[in-house]
Amino acid sequence: MQKVFGRIAPFLFVLLWSTGFIGVKYGIPYSPPFTFVALRMLIAAPLLALIAVVVTKRFEITRAIFLQSSAIGVTLHGAYLAGCFYAVSKGLPAGIVALIVSLQPVLVSVFAAIFLKEELSFRKISGLILGLLGLIIVLTPRIRTASDISWIALGACVVALMGGTSGTLLQKRYGGQLPVLVSTSIQYAMTAFFVGVLAISTEKIEVTWDPHFIFSLVWLIVVLSVGAILLLFYLLRVGSAASVSSYYYLVPPVTAVEAYFLFGEKVSVYGFIGTAITVVGVWLVVAKRTSDAQSL
């Protein structure tokens, strides 16, 4: 059963994570970006704490757990989500946001080789480059049609990229020794505090409780903040940071397909070609890990 779950977990993660931009598109018109993120984390934190108490019958926090979890939360969730939400709220097309933050696998691979001593083989490098190339092919038509791109929004994407990269490395470094549910609850609480301060300082906190916003908020909390994040932590626990990060390459193409069915957005021939190239690139990165798992 564990082997079966291990094989489907990456596909399930990509599917769930890809719905994030769809959720943002539904909800962002009804709330300022930082307020939206802070509200999401403010609800998700006690929800994970409750799940931790129900599952483990305890909620134990040490100084190390608090500090390490807080660092992961502020980077992996706070900087990443705040940057992405802010960029979308400023009108930057989701495709461009996805392209910028999808540089994460390359950065994670390089930094993981330096700081975590992970292997960075020629095959893995080739896969990362091929995956990035396929992703660019998928998103090029959207980039060409984009106009009035905000430099502030681009800067927010860079913040999101660096936050996601450093948070992934921190989770890989410390996550194995942290209680998952307790740690995730702390991460969300610190994210709510961090982004909440940004919201109070820079925004007029005003939420329109439209059904679209409520659906978006519930979806992002249950599916992303609970389901997808726990899957991500599981994948990081059993695989390398570089291999797991390569799955992010598959998120924009999957999101494009979802947008086609939900919003009628067109999927071009470039999309199919780029997706095929991206899949090959990801396979090159994770093939070794998959074969090793099968041999256990």
Can you describe what's shown?
The chain contains twelve helices and no strands. The protein is mostly helical. It has one domain. α1 crosses α11 and α3 packs across α8. The longest helix has 28 residues. The radius of gyration is 18 Å and the shape is globular. The two termini are 14 Å apart.
Percent in strands:
under 5%
Helix content bin: over 70%
Largest sheet: none
Helix/strand-derived category reads mainly alpha
The succession of helices and strands, N to C, reads HHHHHHHHHHHH
User: With helices defined by DSSP (H or I, 4 residues minimum), what is the helix count?
Assistant: 12
Give the helix/strand layout.
Layout: H1 2-27, H2 33-56, H3 63-89, H4 94-101, H5 104-115, H6 122-145, H7 151-174, H8 180-202, H9 211-238, H10 241-245, H11 251-263, H12 269-295
Helix pairs in contact: 1-9, 1-11, 2-3, 2-8, 2-9, 3-7, 3-8, 5-7, 6-12
Structure summary:
The chain has 296 residues and is mainly α. The chain has twelve helices and no strands.
Question: Descriptors for this entry?
Answer:
296 residues, mainly alpha, 81% helix, globular, disordered C terminus
